[in-house]
Structures are given as C-alpha cells and as structure tokens.
Amino acid sequence: MADEPVVVDTNIVFSILLAPASPLRDALFRPGRRFLICETCLVELFRHREKLLKLRPAFPPSRLEATFHAILRQLDLYKENSIGLDAWNRAEEYCRDVDPQDAPHVALTLEVDGLLWTGDKRLRRGLEAKGFDRFFTPDPE
Known about the structure:
By secondary structure, the chain is an alpha/beta fold. It has a single domain (about 5-130), classed as Rossmann fold, CATH 3.40.50. The chain has eight helices and four strands, in the order E-H-H-E-H-H-H-E-H-H-E-H. The chain has helices spanning about 10-20, 25-30, 40-45, 50-55, 60-70, 85-95, 105-110, 120-130, and strands at about 5-10, 35-40, 75-80, 115. Strands 3-2-1-4 form a four-stranded parallel β-sheet. Helix 6 packs across helix 7.
C-alpha cells in the first residue's frame, strides 16, 4: 500500500551512495511514497564516509556529497526523541539477539506504522523469526 511510510535502513542509503544508478535508487526516487530516516542513519553514514570514498576511489568527494544531497532530498528526517517509549521497547525486544544497533530503525517503523526497507538479510530473518513482518520490497519497474 503506497500510503504506508517506508523507513530506510542505513544499508540501503549506503548501497545507493555506492551505486547511484541502481534499482534501489530508482525505487527511492519513484514518486508516491514517503521515505523516512532517523538520526542514527545520518550518524552511521558520517562514521563511514571514509569507507565510502575508499570503496569508490574514482568517486570524488564532491560527487559523493552531491549524491548524498540528492538522496537526502527524497528522505524525511524523523527525530528519534519523537518516537514513543512503547515503540522503543518493542523495537529493543525485536532487535535483541539480532542487531541492537538497528533498534532505532525498527522503533521508527513501529512508531509510524510503516514498513522497514533493509538490505540486511540477517536482520530481516531475525526480525521475521520474532514475528515482525513490516518490510518494504520495491516493486520492479
């Protein structure tokens, strides 16, 4: 359903930064969806900036910044302190023993009653095993 907001996990943004001409980018730039990120995503991307540049040596910093800016224009930043305690508690339970660092993405998904877009197969399998089934899979176009 196109009405549900989609919470974009950091690995999706990272992948689009590495391959700006990709089906992931096409899905993000396709109209009709609201895409959200939480502050954790920005912190993780900032932490891995040098890694991004090393993985794409022919990708000058100015191009990385321009690509990142274009991606950010497609995303709404949701303040983590606006996420309710119930969503945080549920997310921490879902992410425990899977990947606690992904709790902010899951909490935001629960808070907005949205879908989680992640490329992390281990996270997805772990969440599914605990009954979480709110995932976004882009339609091929």
